Amino acid sequence: MENMQKELRTLLAIAAGQTAILSSLIRTHPNYDRFQIDLSGLLEAFLNGAAGQTLTEQQRTQARAYVESLLGLHEAPDPLVSVLIEKIQRGL
Description:
5 helices
């Protein structure tokens, strides 16, 4: 059980790092509006396509919520990393 918790904390840390990278790329994209439209379309294609069918309904909802929160980064510059870091610090 301890190994699983350690692995889960590692995955959360990796997700936090990836979110920081994505946040920076999204906020500094030279054509943000086009990027936002493209990402929205790709999300729907992914979730409704073969890859998305391997996910549970809850996972699809979580994926959609995560991407939609990233799409709002242009207006809200605080990265979502803080949420993940808080979870890590609380020990999940």
